[in-house]
């Protein structure tokens, strides 16, 4: 039996491929790409616009982040800097600094004394007293913020949000001390004044009271000003001017009236008299004038008397006249002849009073008013007579000129039982007899005489010490040159 078969379509006659599971479904894939193809230009334009927007937004945010204000929570010198630009903060910081540096201080005395009243007549700014204010770390942070990029500001902002910087202070102490000393001078640096004793007579004294001095205590003033500024930081609205006590250190006088009273003389320690040589009016005037200059001179314990000072006083107050002097081994006229008689008399009185001999020189020729070895010459710029007070009391010199006699006395505090003698020993012979007339050919058989002198200290008449005094050498030949002009 023949079966009837329908004719097959050609495609239906082809064998079917198995379905590929990885291939997208032809439905949406085809539709998407079918839609893209006719809209390619529009899509490209859209992407371009989006890119422009993104770039613009990026530029906008970059520009504004570069000018971003400081983070909230950041404080500098009491200023809330959050939300401000660095330049604004710097302006406020400088205003704060100017306010602090311009604050004024007035000093007040630390004691009651009218001489310290000038302290209150002037004020000083803290800047004038050497104070400077600021905060270098804050300045660096503000500069970094202003110059930093976005990434740097992002990182720095987190750090500054928790930062609080106080105002810092520098103090230049040398500037402070220079300022107050320049303004007040001796008001704050005053030297003490010692008590004075005016001897009307060796036993009658008028005293002038001592006055203590003072000087600036720099360390205490420095501490006071630093404490003041420290308090000022927490209370900047204090009343102006602020007051500070000027600390002074008292400097007591070295010599008080009480001390002087313990040094008052109680006895005549030694005296010596010489006969004034008859060598004319000038010689007599010079002896009297130098004696007046010596009268009343007081030598304190451990101090010296220099005859050169007596001569200077004589010239200034009384003047000197022309009289015989020794020059080049000869007697010639010169200014001041005769003052060596006063120095010689003074020397001998000082020896008997127990004064120390610092410097003494003999004349080049013998003199007629004392034994050999007992004279003391003086020459301007040359030999001098210097004696020292080695006692615990004042030494008071007095002089008297009566007729042709000059007496020098030394008053001081007597040591019980102590007396002094002076002896001389001449090495050459014969012993010369000295007169008021010295000729060119005195002792022609000798060229010089050497004399050793000693001071003998006795206690209740018993010798306890023998002191060698400066040696004396007398040149007797006129050809021997003597460079100094001795006043004779």
TrEMBL record:
Transmembrane segments annotated in the record for this chain: 43-63
Keywords, comma-separated and alphabetical: Membrane, Transmembrane, Transmembrane helix
Every YoaR-like putative peptidoglycan binding domain range: 123-232
Keyword Transmembrane helix: yes
Residue spans of biased composition, Basic and acidic residues class: 1-17
InterPro entries linked: Glycopeptide_resist_protein, Vancomycin_resist_VanW, YoaR-like_PG-bd
Segments of this protein annotated with the region Disordered: 1-25
A Pfam family it matches: VanW
Domain of life: Bacteria
PANTHER family: EXPORTED PROTEIN (PTHR35788:SF1), EXPORTED PROTEIN-RELATED (PTHR35788)
Identification of the protein by name: VanW family protein
The organism of origin for this protein: Paenibacillus arenosi
């Amino acid at each position: 039996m023949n079966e009837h078969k329908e004719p097959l379509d050609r495609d239906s006659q082809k064998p079917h491929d198995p379905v590929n599971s990885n291939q997208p479904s032809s439905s949406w894939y085809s539709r998407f790409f079918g839609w893209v193809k006719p809209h390619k230009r529009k899509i490209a334009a859209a992407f371009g616009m989006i890119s422009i927007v993104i770039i613009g937004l990026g530029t906008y945010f970059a520009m504004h982040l570069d000018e971003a204000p400081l983070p909230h929570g950041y404080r500098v010198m009491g200023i809330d800097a959050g939300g401000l630009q660095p330049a604004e903060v710097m302006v406020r910081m400088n205003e704060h600094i100017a306010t602090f540096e311009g604050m004024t201080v007035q000093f007040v005395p630390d004691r009651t004394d009218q001489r310290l009243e000038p302290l209150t007549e002037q004020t000083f700014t803290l800047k004038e007293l050497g104070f400077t204010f600021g905060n270098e770390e804050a300045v660096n942070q503000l500069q970094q913020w202003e110059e930093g990029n976005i990434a740097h500001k992002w990182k720095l902002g987190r750090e500054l949000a928790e930062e609080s910087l106080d105002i810092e202070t520098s103090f230049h102490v040398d500037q402070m001390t220079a300022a107050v000393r320049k303004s007040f001078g001796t008001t704050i640096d005053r030297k003490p004044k010692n008590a004075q004793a005016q001897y009307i007579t060796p036993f009658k004294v008028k005293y002038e009271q001592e006055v203590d001095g003072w000087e600036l205590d720099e360390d205490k003033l420095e501490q006071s000003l630093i404490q003041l500024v420290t308090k000022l930081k927490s209370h900047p609205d204090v009343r102006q001017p602020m007051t500070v006590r000027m600390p002074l250190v008292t400097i007591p006088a070295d010599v008080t009236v009480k001390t002087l009273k313990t040094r008052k003389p109680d006895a005549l320690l030694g005296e010596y008299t010489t006969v004034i040589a008859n060598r004319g009016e000038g010689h007599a005037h010079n002896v009297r004038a130098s004696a007046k200059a010596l009268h009343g001179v007081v030598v304190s314990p451990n101090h010296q008397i220099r005859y050169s000072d007596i001569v200077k006083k004589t010239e200034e107050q009384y003047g000197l006249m022309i009289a015989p002097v020794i020059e080049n081994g000869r007697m010639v006229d010169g200014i001041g002849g005769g003052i060596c008689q006063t120095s010689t008399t003074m020397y001998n009185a000082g020896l008997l009073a127990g004064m120390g001999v610092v410097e003494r020189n003999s004349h080049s020729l013998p003199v007629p008013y004392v034994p050999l070895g007992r004279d003391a010459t003086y020459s301007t710029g040359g030999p001098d007579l210097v004696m020292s007070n080695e006692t615990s009391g004042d030494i008071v010199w007095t002089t008297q000129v009566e007729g042709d006699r000059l007496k020098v006395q030394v008053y001081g505090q007597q040591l019980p039982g102590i007396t002094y003698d002076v002896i001389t020993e001449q090495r050459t012979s014969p012993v010369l007899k000295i007169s008021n007339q010295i000729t060119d050919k005195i002792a022609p058989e000798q060229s010089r005489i050497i004399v050793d002198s000693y001071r003998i200290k006795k206690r209740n008449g018993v010798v306890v010490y023998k002191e060698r005094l400066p040696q004396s050498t007398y040149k007797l030949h006129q050809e021997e040159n003597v460079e100094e002009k001795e006043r004779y």
